[in-house]
Structure formats: structure tokens, C-alpha cells
Amino acid sequence: MMLTCKPQCEPAARAVDGRGGAAGHGALDVRFELDDFGIGYSSLMYLQRLPLKRLKIDQSFVRDVATNPNSAVIARSIVALGHGLGLQVIAEGVETDAQRALLAQMDCDAFQGYFFGRPVALAELAKLAELAGK
């Protein structure tokens, strides 16, 4: 389940017990991905309270990562924080090879963005998958 950092995160955080599992859900393995980290309602508290697997660096930091030293420091810090907590870190909004290369140097685990492809309809995705399989 992906959570975007908005006021809706708080009820989810309260529903999770301190052992990293969803309270009252027994054997269910509920995991969260924290989207848009670093903006809006994001809070370090969610890093402690939710059973996160992934942390996504908001595109507002990725956009200027190659040209703005402050954005680069923030992105590098989010990667280090995520890895220190045992999380996979994903950069969203990667649009250039310079952004991808710099984030890769920071040991960012994965990337999303137009550099890799534009969104496509499901039918076109199926065609692309079929072509890739040949």
C-alpha cells in the first residue's frame, strides 16, 4: 500500500502497532510505501510507526538535484536516512540522465520518471510487453 504524506497518514499510523505489523490483522503482512517524502504532511514519525518497505523522494527535490546544491543535499540525506532504516529508496520524477546518474551515485535504489518512459494505456503496455518478450 502506498501512502502519500497527507493528513490521511495519521489514522494509518495509529492503526499500526509498535511491532511493525498492522494492529488486529494477525497473519496479514501489510507493508507501506511512503510517497512524496519531504513535502506536505510528511513526518519522521511515520518512519518509526509504519511498517515501511520503501521511501520515495519527492520529485521537487529530484527536479533540481543536478543544479541546486540544496536539493542534492536533501536527496542524499533522504537516501542515507532510508538506507539507515533498512528501506528501499526510490526517486520520482527523474527526467534526465544527469539526475539519474547523480542519484545513482547517491546509491538511490530505483528511479521513476519520464526519462524511462511516459505513461501509456494498458493496451499499449501489453503490446510493449509482447514486443519485449520477442
Short description:
The protein contains 6 helices and 5 strands; from the N terminus they run βαβαβααβαβα. It has helices at about 10-15, 45-50, 60, 70-85, 95-105, 120-130; strands spanning about 1-5, 30-35, 50-55, 90, 110. The protein has a 5-stranded parallel sheet.
How would you describe the overall organization of this protein?
The chain is α/β, with parallel strands linked by helices and 134 residues long. The chain has one domain: Alpha-Beta Barrel (TIM Barrel). The chain has helices at residues 9-15, 44-49, 59-62, 69-84, 97-105, 122-132; strands spanning 2-4, 32-37, 52-57, 88-92, 110-112. It has a five-stranded parallel sheet with strand order 1-2-3-4-5.
SSE blueprint:
Layout: E1 2-4, H1 9-15, E2 32-37, H2 44-49, E3 52-57, H3 59-62, H4 69-84, E4 88-92, H5 97-105, E5 110-112, H6 122-132
Order of helices and strands: EHEHEHHEHEH
* Spatial strand arrangement across the major sheet: 1-2-3-4-5
Structural class by helix and strand composition: alpha/beta
Report low-confidence residues grouped into runs of 5 or more: 1-9, 17-26
Largest sheet: 5 strands, parallel
What is the end-to-end distance?
32 Å
What is the third-level CATH name, the topology?
Answer: TIM Barrel
Shape: globular
Q: What's the number of extended β-strand segments?
A: 5
CATH architecture: Alpha-Beta Barrel
Helix count?
6
In helices, the fraction of residues equals 25-40%
- Computed CA radius of gyration, to the nearest angstrom: 17 Å
**CATH H-level homologous superfamily name:** EAL domain
Mean pLDDT: 79
